[in-house]
Write a structure and sequence with these properties.
The protein has an 8-stranded antiparallel β-barrel with strand order 1-2-3-4-5-6-7-8. The protein has one domain. Strand 2 and strand 3 form a beta hairpin. The protein has 1 helix and 8 strands, in the order H-E-E-E-E-E-E-E-E. The chain is of the alpha+beta class. Bound molecules: 2-acetamido-2-deoxy-beta-D-glucopyranose (2 copies). One 2-acetamido-2-deoxy-beta-D-glucopyranose (NAG) binds next to strand 2 and strand 3. Keywords: Membrane, Transmembrane, Transmembrane helix.
Length: 203
């Protein structure tokens, strides 16, 4: 009995130690992750040259710019890996808090918009859906930079209600698989990426 208890006691201590080490590890990992982000208050556009072709027309001004991380989704259609969805989290560059999520509507809206951004506002989420109108190849390692035109918006003016243009800039990775070898129609692959999204409203 005693030995049994002792062993159980030891294993509790072991578990407790493992838990402490684990949470310490998670803490260190989280802290390191935070530090590797832009410093608090940093302007996500400070190191980005926006190509002229991606600029919105005159009469529009920047409303918000958020760094985002997530995945692009590709489905094999028999010839190509076709980008059909995305899933990314946009964060406030100053607080690192989640401000919105990016996804594609299940089907395009009446004006052909599908990529969408939804504010992280449980009471009344604001959504902008848009359609890509300009796309430029910047790096062979990353998905294109694009300018999109809003096709539908909902919610608050402070969020996405008045947004007319969206840009995807400073992309990193997110490309489809290099090969289609062995792929079957309907196969899905996800590809990790990061970008900066900007939102423009009438000035
Ligand atoms: C597959 O996607 C490509 C690129 O979007 C398109 O041109 C082609 O028609 C599609 N093929 C089929 C079978 O849907
Ligand atoms: C994209 O994924 C979201 C969930 O993250 C889903 O609600 C949406 O319907 C998907 N869109 C498409 C086109 O599959």
């Amino acid at each position: 009995m005693r030995m049994g208890f002792g062993r159980r006691g030891n294993s509790y201590i072991f578990c407790f130690r493992a838990l402490v080490l684990l949470s310490l590890g998670i803490y260190v990992f989280a802290a390191r992750d935070l530090l590797s982000e832009a410093p608090a208050g940093a302007d996500p556009l400070s190191n980005i040259q926006i190509p002229a072709i991606l600029q919105p027309p005159s009469g529009f001004e920047l409303h918000a710019a958020y760094p985002a991380k997530g995945y692009q989704y590709y489905r094999y259609n028999g010839s190509y890996w076709v980008n059909f969805n995305a899933s990314a989290i946009l964060r406030d560059p100053a607080t690192n808090k989640k401000v919105a999520r990016h996804f594609f509507l299940t089907t395009p809206d009446a004006l052909g918009g599908q990529p969408s951004w939804e504010s992280h506002n449980p009471r009344s989420p604001s959504i902008v859906t848009a359609k890509s109108i300009e796309s430029i190849h910047v790096s062979k390692h990353s998905i294109n930079w694009v300018r999109l035109k809003a096709t539908h918006t909902t919610g608050s003016r402070k969020e996405f209600r008045d947004v007319a243009f969206v840009q995807r800039l400073a992309t990193r990775a997110g490309l489809p698989p290099i090969s289609t070898k062995g792929a079957k129609v309907g196969d899905v692959r996800k590809s990790k990426y990061s970008a900066v999204y900007t939102f423009y409203v009438p000035s």
